[in-house]
Amino acid sequence: MRTLGGVIALAFGNAALFADAAGAQIAGRVLGAGSPIAGSTVTLWAATDHAPIQVAQVKSDADGHFALALDTSHPSGAVLYIIAKGGESKARARAGDNPSIALLAVLGDKPPSNVVVNEFTTVASVWTSLQVLTGDGMSGHQLGLHIAAGNVGNFVDLTTGGWGTAIQDPLNSSQTTTMASFATIANVLSACVTSVAQDACATLFSAATPPTGKAPDNTLQAAEEIARYTWYKPDRLFTAMGKLYPVPTGKTMRDVPFQPYLAMAPSAWVLALRFDGGGYRAGGKAMFDSEGNLWVGDNFTVGWQARDSLWQGPATKFAPNGHAISPATTGFAGGGMMGGTFGAAIDANDNAWFGTYGGKSIAVFDRSGKPLTPPEGITFGGKLGLMQGIIVTPSGDVWALGISRNQVVFFPKGDISKGKLVCEGRTGDPCRALLGPFHLAIDQQDRIWVSNAAADFVTRFPASNPAQLETFKTGYSGSGLNIDSKGNVWVTNRLGNGAHGAASLEEIQKKVKSGANPDPAITLMMSKQTGIGDNGGSVSLLRPDGSPYPGSSFSGRSLPGSWAVVVDGDDNVWISNFAMPSSPLGHLCGARTETCPPGFKTGDPISPPGGYVTGALQMQTDLAIDPAGNVWLINNWQNIDACLDAPAEVTSTLCGGQGVVVFYGMAKPVRAPQIGPARAP
Asked: Is the alpha carbon torsion for 122, 126, 128, 133 positive or negative?
């Protein structure tokens, strides 16, 4: 038997070219609960942007072994995956053929020479590849397929069928419930695979029935429905495990094939992992480049006794699988990069633009992390104040905002040598309709919309005439802002719309008028918000003409401190939160209700009442959706007391948030880089 030594394959993210595949094979084994599955139909498929292509098919032998021949019948760049259907589990004597068995292993374009197909590979492959999976077919745009395949190894070791690397590391194994959730799902799938009870499969299918009402009929479909509707009656699957694996008399633990398992029902069957490194500390804004790498501007630098008044952070770059690319500890520095903010953008050449606080400058890096700006950055001779939002427009122009001096900066066609200060918010200046400008977006009519941190309105002006400003009422202290495919404007109001927000805004405006930075006051106020009553954030929705959308604004427990909003490829919206120490991820039905679950209307929370949660989340600023549909959240603060003026020595390095958190397969994918309103790939 030959291994893949004769197969020429390029690295993850590029096309794989099987140039010498004659006689090459993938050897493997089909297992259920660690025991062989005999007589399973094992099919090797190639996923492309069209219908998947069958490459090879065999039956597993009495010990579950198989060997699949590779040939040149599939296109270069295709992601390979295996589906094993039916067969007899050897975990039970004389079990007979089980047509409900369907197991999946997504191998990528550089498959290992030996693989295991089991419950673990199925759960890992379904959650990472959900947005390109339909039943047992897998297809989609190439970048999304490769990102999905490249993340499988974070959950499972394909060569052993056991735990992967990231899920076991210290950031995830003991600080979150991800391992226990993963194993619990695998246990209930395994109960059907191995027929631990006569009604094991019926129990699984009932627990996995989606809100559409159509029950699955095999284990792969069941896994997909659970992943697609993580929030829908999550207690059913937990109850099913208790029924299928009761605690034996006189014992304290269930006799399950996979551990650890959950001891209490989750609020949703989300699988999230945290990644750190590359100089990451207290990330601000984040954006994906054309290869699916995530760029983040950091408030602080690793190791410093950093407080909210000390901004000196670098830029961090993560690969699509969460591994840090930028240098450890120092990240990408230079070019005026000193304390990243909520200002980050990626242009059509994959150059990364950042606003800074510590440098009061704009810094630009090329795709390799080399600074393109002078050592002090772009400062306009020291005229810039504290910089925040930056965007690239479809025409190639770059716009940036300065929060402390109400500034608007313009770079025609992204030329750093031709940048100019459009306005500075002085008396008589056309930008007087800005009050602490924070973030911005461009709509389909080439109009710039701006949120205002120290106001209860957003500002709009034509990109061709920044002096023609209009304002539209929203909530208190706007921050995030995004445009959907219909031109509707989504705005996050950090202090909500109620009396609590109104009183808080008065304090903020006093600081702004005195020339002080309002950020510390805003963040401290938000850290006490709960989302209960009017003590929380909100989300406003404006029509393209600026009028309020019916039912706007939206609030609730999943929006305790709404900071950023992003729109996915289905026009549903996702909201980060900066509030309690472990803030949730919010998810609302968008303006195209046909893409929402049955019965939902615009603004309804799709996420559980308290949002999606995991122990990996801290107080977040931004979030972003990658081309595979994974939702990345940016931890900004972790210890509130450490961020204040006089932290204790032992907590003095714990102000800045630790790592980015990835919720897998949750959203309809978005094209990267995002230039203009979000679009599906």
From this structure: positive
Split at pLDDT 50, 70, 90, the class of 661 is: very high
Mean pLDDT, the chain, integer: 93
pLDDT recorded at residue 649 = 93
Q: Using DSSP, state whether 680 is helix, strand or coil.
A: coil
Mapping DSSP onto H, E and C, the string for 398-463 reads EEEEECCCCEEEEEHHHCHHHCEEEECCCCCCHHHHCCCEEEEEECCCCEEEEEECCCCEEEEEEC
Instruction: For residues 475 and 390, give the distance between their C-alpha atoms in angstroms, rounded to a whole number.
Output: 22
How many angstroms separate the CA atoms of 140 and 217, rounded? 24
Q: 618: helix, coil or strand?
A: coil
Q: Is the peptide bond before 211 cis (omega within 30 degrees of 0)?
A: no
The reply to whether the predicted model has a pTM over 0.70 is: yes
The whole-number pLDDT of residue 518 equals 76
518: cis peptide before it, omega within 30°?
no
How would you class 570 by CB atoms within 10 Å of its CB: exposed for 0-12, middle for 13-18, buried for 19 or more? buried
User: pLDDT, tens digit, for every residue of 58-86?
Assistant: 999 999 999 999 877 777 779 999 999 99
C-alpha closest to that of 301 among 656, 661, 642, 650: 656
Beta pairing class for 586-588 and 619-625? unpaired
Rounded Cα gap, residues 654 and 280, in angstroms: 13
Element (H, E) at 126: helix 119-129
- Helix %, strand %, coil % of the chain (to 5): 15, 30, 55
- Work out the angle between the directed axes of helices 235-244 and 200-207 (0-180°, nearest 10): 170
Give exposure, 107-141, as e/b (b: 16+ Cβ within 10 Å). Answer: bbbbbbbbbbbbbbbbbbbbbbbbbbbeebebbbb
Count CA atoms within 13 Å of residue 78 on its CB side.
24
Summarised one tens digit per residue, pLDDT across range 244-298 is 999 999 999 999 999 999 999 999 999 999 999 999 999 999 999 999 999 999 9
Instruction: Name which of 269, 272, 290 is nearest 632 in CA terms.
Output: 272
The residue type found at 282 is: A
**pLDDT tier, 19 (very low <50, low <70, confident <90, very high otherwise):** very low
